[in-house]
Amino acid sequence: MKIKILFHILIISGFIVLFSCDKKSSNEKHSNSVQKNRPPNAVRAPDFTLVSLEGDQITLSDLRGSVVLLNFWATWCGPCIMEIPDLNRLQEKYQDKGLEVVGITLTSGPPEIISKFAEDQGMNYKVLTDIMGSETEVVTNMYGQATGSPITGVPTSFIIDRDGYIVKTYIGPRSERIFYSDLKRYL
């Protein structure tokens, strides 16, 4: 009789272990799938702090857990202006899936001019600029060094996965379709 009871306890315990031990949190599962999608040459995105047009300090590491489309651009750059509607659509469509489009404006003047430009263009994503006067130049250099390819023109964009790795680089403008084809595996 004791052996039968012990046998039943072992079977029930086995089922409990079988159905409960392999339960990973959805964040763990997502992180593992992101790692599988990450290219072998991916590098950690350099952290930085810049200021938004609203005056808030934004640090890249604060966006960890989101997929970031980081776009270096300028108000005087024709291809950058052509790309803005595509970036707006991406932000609108995929922000609920964890996408953060972030634009870093280069050599475009004081925040008031950039704010007016962003408003005129209907930019619906974070636009960052200098805090004291030259931080965007430092960030540009950091990203050039991290990827081994200096940023010599705008627009230049990076997809940064949820764990903070640069997984794709673009030099020149891209369409919503092209960005999304690369973003979707990380969302």
Name some characteristics of this structure:
alpha+beta; disordered N terminus; eight-stranded mixed β-sheet; 21% strand; single chain; 187 residues; 6 helices; Glutaredoxin
Draw up the topology in text.
Blueprint: H1 2-20, H2 26-37, E1 43-44, E2 49-52, E3 57-59, E4 67-73, H3 78-94, E5 99-105, H4 111-121, E6 126-129, H5 135-147, E7 156-160, E8 165-171, H6 176-183
Parallel strand pairs: 4-5, 5-6
Antiparallel strand pairs: 1-8, 2-3, 2-6, 4-7, 7-8
> What is the first-to-last residue Cα distance?
55 Å
Write down the Rg.
Answer: 22 Å
Number of strands: 8
Main sheet specs: 8 strands, mixed
| Average of the residue pLDDT scores | 85
Order of helices and strands: HHEEEEHEHEHEEH
Q: For the largest beta sheet, what order do the strands appear in spatially? A: 1-8-7-4-5-6-2-3
Q: Could you name the CATH topology of the largest domain?
A: Glutaredoxin
Instruction: Identify the CATH homologous superfamily of the largest domain.
Output: Glutaredoxin
Total separate domains: 2
Based on helices, strands and strand pairing, what is the structural class?
alpha+beta
So what's the CATH class of the largest domain?
Alpha Beta
Note poorly predicted spans. 2-31
In terms of DSSP E residues, the strand content is: 15-25%
Number of helices: 6
What is the global morphology?
Answer: globular
Percent helix, as a range, is 40-55%
CATH architecture of the largest domain: 3-Layer(aba) Sandwich
